[in-house]
Amino acid sequence: MITKAPLSTLSRAALFALLIVAAAFVLLAWQADTVHAQAPTPSDDEVNAIARQLYCPVCENTPLDVCPTEACRQWRELIRQKLAEGWTEEQIKQYFVENYGARVLAEPPRQGVFWLAYIVPPIAILAGAFILYRALKAWNRPEAAAPGVGESEATPVQDEYMARLEEELRKRE
Amino acid sequence: METMQAEQTSKRTIPLWAQVLIWGGLLGLLAVLAWGLVRAQQGTVQPGDTIPDFTLPLFSGYEYNGQSEVHLSELRGKVVVINFWASWCKPCEQEAAELESAWRHYRESGDVVFLGADYVDTEPEARQYLRRFDITYPNGPDKGTKISQLFRIKGVPETYFIDRQGVLRYVQIGPFRSEDEIRAIIDPLLAP
Amino acid sequence: MIADFGYGILVTALVVALYAAGAAIYGARKPSARAVESARRAMLLIWPLLTVAALALIYLLVNDHYEVEFVYQVTSRSMPFYLKVTALWGGQAGSLVFWSWLMALFASAVTLRNWARDREFLPWVIVVTAITIAFFLAMVVFFENPFARFWQTASGVDAYTFRPAGGLPVTPEDGRGLNPLLRHPGMIIHPPMLYLGFVSFVIPYAFAMAALITGRTDDRWIRITRRWTLWAWLFLSLGLVLGARWAYDVLGWGGYWGWDPVEISALMPWLTGTPFLHSVMIQERKGMLKHWNMFLIILTYDLVIFGTFLTRSGVLSSVHAFAQSAIGPMFFAFIGLTLITSLALLFWRWPDLRGETEMKSLLSREALFLFNNLLFLSILVVCFWGVIFPLISELVTGQKVTVGPPFYERATSPLWGALLLLMGIAPLSAWGRSTAKTLGRVLWKPALAALLVVAAVYFLAGVRNVVALIGFTLIAFTGFVTLYEFWRGARARQKAHRESLPLALWRLAGRNRRRYGGYIIHISMVLMAIGILGIEVFQTETQGTVQLGEALALDRYTLTYTDIARFDVPDGRNVTRAVLQVTRDGKAVAELHPRIDYYYDSQQPMTIPGLYSTLADDLYVILVDWEPASAVGATFKVFHNPLVNWLWIGALVFIFGTLVAAWPEREPAYVPVRAAATASGKA
Q1: Does the structural domain C1-178 have CATH classification 1.20.120?
Q2: Are C619 and C193 in contact (CB under 8 A)?
């Protein structure tokens, strides 16, 4: 297994990878979008803005913009090239999905069976909320209106607070 | 959350439907985990398995008999050697020349087909790599990583040898050290 | 020699643990006090045994015994002494030994408590803890022996526990060295903290099981384990925070939390442990939710094991995962068995666990606590689903997918926000009854103050981001409510006892430590929320390649690249270190040294950021790339992380608050049952 590529490239890539960067001018990350159409060579920031949303299968669960492997470096260059050709962010992402599968996206695509990813948690949460609501209603039935032990009821809060606090303090001392 | 539900509807026991739901859900969950575990443990496809059909699109200039894609099913009756590689993969470079010369050895006979499946790679770099090692056998990108998932590869390079009946006969993990090594695997598969 | 000895000790410990479980079951069923006593003593023997085994392993690690496979994998000659010791938990086998050792420590501590009033629990607590220990020891003894040595046989060199036929010992010259990612101080204490959190949650679970088995299903088990749970929660939370800090310092993403499956699997027990901490208060106070609390602790225990399973089975891949190994199926079986057994026990005792009183108002504190439970469990559902969805997707469609940060952030951030809001309201609501009117009367002042703060943020600081504004509103509101609580309590006490305000505050908190410790924890959560909101919403970054003397600019900062050097250091690293002069608004504020450490033994580079921290923000610089031979210059990535340090400050406050709440008190064990029951129903 030692000879396997992901490991050995991982070790070298970060050190020896050469970034072919032309005169990159510095922009705030959020400004990048507004300028990229007229930029002659896409800057690192423009590339990273897209790379951040992609995941390379070679380093699973690490976003592309910070993954140090050689494979990911090549991917970033590919993004730069596509940007230079005038592709939009959506087109580039689409290109990556077609070539490397749905796993390159940070989330499952919203289609077909993958909708399960988005539907199941809300359903479970709503079911939980419903169950809680029913439980509270059941607990709240009038027949159960025996007053709680030591509970002062509709007294004004400030006084109740004082009373409760003092009662507790007394118990403690 | 079912527990709270049951707590209020019946103070005696949990209603049957809730029990069924809970146990069913639990077993379903365990089944998914078990499957994930089996998959994680099983490694690559093993010799003896029949490889289902797949389609490998090919780079222009690296076609198979002039076709821009190749189906495994078309190759029944030939020995198929499928090699997973990538241009960013250093160990792949160690075996690139050996694979190519092995291919040239068998090319004339027409009984053996070499296929290069380029794993998670970018085309310009891949072409550069192919030129650098003067590779001539059909090569193409593993689009959507479908083929590598089919073989459940664990890394690159890996090479799979499929016999004339479409049955996997040998798996090489890691690079070959010599051409003889490759031929020693192919020759028995060619024997009638 | 030492290796064989260590292995022998591990085997002995396993046998003793199995004996303890067996004797305890026998003693409880018979019943035989002698058998239980024997089990108790056996239990007490495990920890010393494991201490010896761990020491033997540490001896081998420290003395470069590379004939032992584990030592070879995690250490090398160039590593400093302390790292060789902590390498104990740097690999699969050693960390399992360490896990068992911690578990045995807790089990011994609980075995030594005063059992006079809880005799019937003792054997079952021993059974549960001993079985858990035995399981982990069995993993070590049968699958992951840290004492296995290298032997040369006809088929090559491999590691075996016993000398294979015709085998010759092999001793490699040097080891592979600890994974550089694990050489960070945060990583040295992060796993022990996480493990401590994990193992200490086993104790409340053991008591819960004992309560179910014996049928003594009042809230006794909760009262006994209250402090254990708090400690467990403290350790788990600390483990998570340290892990976050480690990721921030070492992984070079400019962030602290990547929603990685392994991170999430460590978070999941916390997501059930926290509501458990809250809802046990309802049971103590009102006798309600008995089923629910059982369910929560069972879930917590199995999520602990599940987390351990995920990291070690190869089911998921992640930066944190251990190499896949044979122990996956064993963990799977263990999770399945414990989950099924515990739930079956719970269902069996279901009728005995009925609640005592009733809920009277949707705004009462118990109702709000239930909403809190719902929210935590909702986050759990999102996390759990996100973690296993890639498996389901592959199973159903044959396609792998990634479930990454956007998924979790979108789904959980409203839930976290709601929790924050609840944290503000719940302490002001009364047990039993609250109405919108009574609640409104206490809430309007903090709410008004919060609105003022947010207005200031909007108009003065010019923040227009909606998420940030909502977040700051919730943060300010909850913060004010909690501080207001302190103030009201102290004022009330000041009036009643004629004490000075500070003294009143001190005594108030001192006499109601659980409650006010809890409030301090709430404040710490508010502080952490400030940090999280800051980095999540306001983080900016830039990357660029510059020549010597050129500068990068980000927000108010300018970073001028002035020097770079590459050199070797004696501990086996090659360091590439850049120097950047930082100015803010034109004024020089710092010199930063981002660097890349290349480890020769493991052939891995590490990116160590340069950090300039203030209370307002962090400037975080990574050296991405530099080649000595080229004229291209050096590439840097710069992050500006506003407010992030409040996350770490919050963590310190959090420790303080938990200590206040959990520090042992003198009286409890000797108070008669009745009095204890009334006295502790206060928080």
Answers
A1: yes
A2: no
